[in-house]
């Protein structure tokens, strides 16, 4: 009877972890941390840089299928008041127009390719609860780069490029 205890313990641990052995883990091409290199919006033949010439952003996909994305314009000046809630109307408008932060859950297919996400919270409240599939939002991993493309409701075509962050 005693040899059954270690086997039973291993089965319980495997069931609780939600995965089998490390070799059996579902592949996930997007998991990790990504730093924004560029972002552009093309609309009616005109090109616009929504996060300026020095975009500053990070995209993080966790192994437990959550994501966080924060994108900012690196050229937005500091608020004169030095208080987060104390900006002028113009300062607040520029900060809102030049940045976005949101988080939620995402899915991948059997090959580990991104298949969609659900936004659980965002600095732009209209996005909360939105669901996008690979038809609406495409994320393609090529080596240490991830390319994001989607069309905004106003018809603007967004393209962004990120590079994988390698921590020492």
Task: Kindly describe this structure.
The longest helix is centred in the N-terminal third of the chain and has 14 residues, at 4-17. This protein has helices at 4-17, 89-97, and strands spanning 32-43, 46-48, 55-61, 66-73, 99-108, 114-122, 131-133, 137-142, 145-151, 157-164. A hairpin with a 2-residue loop joins strand 8 (137-142) and strand 9. Strands 1, 2, 3, 4, 5, 6, 7, 8, 9 and 10 form a ten-stranded antiparallel β-sheet that branches. It has 168 residues and is mainly beta.
Task: Summarize, please.
The protein has 168 residues and is mainly beta. The chain has 2 helices and 10 strands; from the N terminus they run αββββαββββββ.
* Major sheet characteristics: 10 strands, antiparallel
Report the strand count: 10
Give me the secondary-structure category: mainly beta
The proportion of residues forming helix, as a percent range, comes to 10-25%
Strand-helix topology:
Blueprint: H1 4-17, E1 32-43, E2 46-48, E3 55-61, E4 66-73, H2 89-97, E5 99-108, E6 114-122, E7 131-133, E8 137-142, E9 145-151, E10 157-164
Antiparallel strand pairs: 1-2, 1-3, 1-10, 3-4, 4-5, 5-6, 6-7, 8-9, 9-10
Could you name the key traits of this structure?
168 residues, mainly beta, 10 strands, 14% helix, disordered N terminus
């Amino acid at each position: 009877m005693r040899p059954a205890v270690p086997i039973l313990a291993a089965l319980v641990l495997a069931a609780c972890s939600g995965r089998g052995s490390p070799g059996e883990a579902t592949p996930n091409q997007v998991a990790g941390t990504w730093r924004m290199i560029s972002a552009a919006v093309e609309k009616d033949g005109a090109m616009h840089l929504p996060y300026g010439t020095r975009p500053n952003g990070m995209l993080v996909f966790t192994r437990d299928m959550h994501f966080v994305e924060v994108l900012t314009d690196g050229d937005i000046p500091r608020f004169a008041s030095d208080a987060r809630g104390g900006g002028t109307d113009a300062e607040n408008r520029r900060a809102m127009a030049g940045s976005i932060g949101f988080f939620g859950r995402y899915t991948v297919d059997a090959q580990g390719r991104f298949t969609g996400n659900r936004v659980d919270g965002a600095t732009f409240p209209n996005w909360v609860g939105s669901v996008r599939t690979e038809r609406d939002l495409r994320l393609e991993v090529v080596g240490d780069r991830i390319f994001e493309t989607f069309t905004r409701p106003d018809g603007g075509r967004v393209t962004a490029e990120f590079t994988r962050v390698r921590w020492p």
